[in-house]
Amino acid sequence: MEKIIATISESAVNGTNAGSKAKDDIIQISQKAGFKPMIITNPPSHLSKLAFLIKSYCGGLKKQYQTNADLIVFQYAGYFNFTTDISLKELRKYNPNAKLVLLIHDVAALRYQQAKDWQRELKIFNSVDGLIVHNNKMKQWLEDHGITTPMVTLEIFDYLTALPINDNAFNRNVVFAGNLEKSTFLTKLTVNTQIDLFGPKPAEHYPQNITYQGVKKPDELAKFLTQSFGLVWDGDSIHECDGLMGNYEKYNDPHKISLYLSSGLPVILWKQAALADFIIENNLGIVIDDLANLDNEIAQITPKQYNEMKKNVHRVAEELRTGKHTLEALKNI
């Protein structure tokens, strides 16, 4: 059985693009299961897009998209709409007998709440033979909104790294890694807990308990995660994950959770987040309603309880580093 993992390439600015890291990991993991990579270049300019479109109409993309595959898994990013739409059309045209599956990284309609996005994605998701989605909450949302295509869940994104799993001391400090431009809640997080920030586009000012530590590449960031907990939060408010990004937390598997866990770091997560149940059931950290209570929540954790969390995190880290969840989803689709 010939299997293809198809991916639209994206340039990582200084190698710090987490979206690229997630897709690259899946390419590498899928090869363990016998998948061959198909890398699709996203046309960078209007002129190159026009050329790509003309080739599509004239049959000029046949050599690029025709395979002998029985199964094609396409990494659906939720952006690159132009290239995605043409690629799916070409894959269907030149591989009519292959099973076509989307591995979903983001659902644009769920993330941005735009009707035009959903009209497009509803059509795309129901046109393929299978979907690999983040978790049961995302699966339920898609079913409730008209998706009839068979789905399997990933549960959590794997995270490949060659760095050793950290054995951090229980210093009660917290780290937050991500796009700081959209993490405006951090400017209001005045607590006693020391918080270190990593990521692009920081605010001009943060409370005294917060220290900006710069931008690190995904494959080296784990070396700097010497804190006790990794924070996952989105939106403008410290009292809940609000706004579009906050709502998305109810359905999404944030890649930073996988980063923290694969690095050996227990997490702090909003209680209504999609992965909160996974964190609770596996005792991998703390779930919290309101970051105003952060000091009290951390103060209640004893060294013994923290060490138990660390043992559980170490077990899950090994799973994420071997691609367990991706391999199971690819097997079950």
TrEMBL record:
GO MF annotation: an example: transferase activity
Boundaries of every Glucosyltransferase 3-like C-terminal domain copy: 174-332
What domain of life is recorded for the organism?
Bacteria
Say if the entry is tagged with keyword Ribosomal protein.
no
Q: Which UniProt keywords apply?
A: Transferase
On whether GTP-binding is a keyword of this UniProt record, the answer is no
- Pinpoint the Glucosyltransferase 3-like N-terminal domain residues: 13-156
Q: Which residues cross the membrane?
A: none
Stated name of the protein: Galactofuranosyltransferase
Look up and give the organism this protein is from: Ligilactobacillus araffinosus DSM 20653
